[in-house]
Amino acid sequence: DVKVTQSSRYLVKRTGEKVFLECVQDMDHENMFWYRQDPGLGLRLIYFSYDVKMKEKGDIPEGYSVSREKKERFSLILESASTNQTSMYLCASSSGAIRETQYFGPGTRLLVL
Amino acid sequence: GQQVMQIPQYQHVQEGEDFTTYCNSSTTLSNIQWYKQRPGGHPVFLIQLVKSGEVKKQKRLTFQFGEAKKNSSLHITATQTTDVGTYFCAGRPGGSEKLVFGKGTKLTVNP
Predict the structure, then answer these.
(1) By CB distance 3.0 to 4.6 Å, which of A23, A111, B19, B90 could disulfide with B76?
(2) Which of B4, B65, B99 to mutate to test the interface with A (most CBs of A within 10 A)?
(3) pLDDT tens across B29-51, in order?
(4) How far is CA B48 from CA A47, A99, B38, B66, B90, in A?
(5) SS3 call for A3
(6) Sign of the C-alpha dihedral, residues B60, B4, B14, B109?
(7) Cβ-Cβ contacts under 8 Å, B102 against chain A
């Protein structure tokens, strides 16, 4: 079974802090994704990566950056956390095949005070 | 950007009643996927439909892909409390390389 893990289930940070969310997958998947999930807004794509050291902006990249130095690891960085970034963050991975399904991690619930 | 619309946003049913959620796109979808997210959990893949007019069943769940490949539905017969959660559809409108998720339908079931 594919396993996608995220470094924290819950995180509390202060406004202005730099925040790192880590995601690791163990199935040698080429593609990795970061979403945020908010009530009534569904899943919104922040960034994605189709290969090591490659990144593409999703629908809401402002205030975020990402890093993919190794194939199995995809990090989401909040350069200066703000209260409107309080959310559930979900990482996902998929194989490189067309029509691939996405496998999600358990999520990190981030609270920015 | 390209959107995949999903309705209703919320649905509350009595146990034993049927439930349907609908997914629509203004452009052709190359495929449609359905995911379920239990309360407190993360989205889990249920099924993928690829062919025009395709119908697939998983026990009490029936998934359909429209003839024009622009809409899809998930129907649950005789809901049970274990069906509670949010159901998402996801597709690639207009040949987009990105998978676009609907906003989900949150199902609650009264025992």
Answers:
(1) B19
(2) B99
(3) 989 999 999 999 999 999 999 99
(4) 23, 8, 19, 13, 9
(5) coil
(6) positive
(7) 42
Q: Which residue has the tokens 């429209």?
A: B66
Q: B-chain residues within 8 Å CB-CB of A43? A: 43, 88, 101, 104
Report the residue of A35, A99, A100 to disrupt the B interface, i.e. the one with the largest count of B CBs within 10 Å: A99
The amino acid sitting at B31 is: N
The answer to whether the beta carbons of residues A38 and A86 sit under 8 Å apart is no
- Residue among A102, A103, A107 minimizing CB distance to B99: A102
| pLDDT tens-digit readout, A91-106 | 999 987 666 889 999 9
B83: DSSP letter = G
Q: Which two tokens stand for residue B93?
A: 């409108």
- Amino acid found at A106: P
Question: Which chain B residue has the Cα nearest residue A97?
Answer: B97
Which region, left, alpha or beta, applies to residue B60 given φ > 0 means left and ψ of -120 to 50 means alpha? alpha
Residue B98: pLDDT band with limits 50, 70, 90: confident
Q: A54 contacts in B (CB within 8 Å)? A: none
Tokens 């402002």 belong to which residue? A62
Cβ A46 vs Cβ A55: under 8 Å: no
Contact partners, residue A40, CB within 8 Å, separation at least 6: B9, B103
Chain-chain contact of A40 with B99 (C-beta, under 8 angstroms): no
